[in-house]
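User: quick one, fold this
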Amino acid sequence: GIFEGPEKTLEVCFRTTSGSTPPSNPGLRSLSRPSLDSICNLAKCTILSVIRNKHLDAYVLSESSLFVYPYMLILKTCGTTTLLLVLPHLMELASSIGLVMDWVGYSRKNLMMPEAQLFPQRGWNEEMEYLRTHRESGNRDLRGNGYTLGPVTGDHWFVWVADRTVREDVVGTDRVINIMMFDIDPTVRSHFYTSRYKSSTSPSPDDKKDTDEKNDTDEKNDTDATSDVEIRRISEEMTTRSGIDRLVPGAVIDSRAFEPCGYSMNAILYNSYSTMHITPEATCSYASFETNAKLKSYHSLINNVVRTFKPKRFVLTMMADEAGLGQIQDNPLQSSYTKPINVPLKEKSLIYRRSNLASIQVEDDTCCIMGNFELEDAGEGRGLAMQKGLDNRAQSYS
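Assistant:
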């Protein structure tokens, strides 16, 4: 079968009712575990594990990831999850702790099988209508706008933004970059099947020791101690064998292998997160890497991620404050950047050329940019894979 790997992403920023965001206020991080579970249940996913530092909480989910800051929540879900159903309940929970909406962003790439989705995610028009008719506390309309970036006959990106931000003297420099990779190299894909890592003898329950301080074991869904230990071992081996650990140097990593295949990872370093989600099946192979780290240049990061997975094509998106965009040097999503992305390997170089570029500035200062990159000389296999993808997408451009 085909699994819908590309994620739907909901980001909501809040402020206190007085309009401020005092750093001493735990804000959304004070929400209880049952409250977070109720959010995830609406999206049809569950919490599997969590890592924390003084800036944020990062949850690995059964379908992607959840990140909670004092005044910002980011929820990413894949498959046939119902992400947008979370929004009304999230607004209620935020209101109960004295927070009001500041900014809402919803985005996703076009889907291979939109007809498999559930209400209200069955198409872009339905999603926009749901967002348009939603009311926050006080019965105020969200008053957002939707946009499409990229060719509707190929890979494209949907973005919806509602902005209530109270502009102050502080200039925002936030940005998020996402690398969505398709048609992953077969050797790389093989790393993400649990059968490769199964030991001849399973560890005994006595081996389950609390040696991993970064994970809260009371927040795991697995009830069988032995299987939990085995999954942790396999997850860590996947991370190192595939080279994913080298993509986030210095970060605390929380990884999760899925049976029979698949992988998710969150990593946190100071106040930034990185997250990866991998669907290795040959019919729908996909891997994504997203981070909100404020780098001056993303050139090395993009090269390292692409080198690790060797896709035949990838979609690069960025959502950034205007000032944040101005801080980036050597940006492959600038119209003036015409060089191919050259990824050197031992035997040859992988050369990816940007086939198209789209950008728009939405609301006051949110810049959204996307580019499609294709591997040169990928041969007949790439052509067939691209045609198959276009045939799937031809069913719906939403």
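User: anything notable?
Assistant: The helical segments are 33-43, 86-96, 124-133, 186-189, 225-242, 299-309, 322-326, 379-393.
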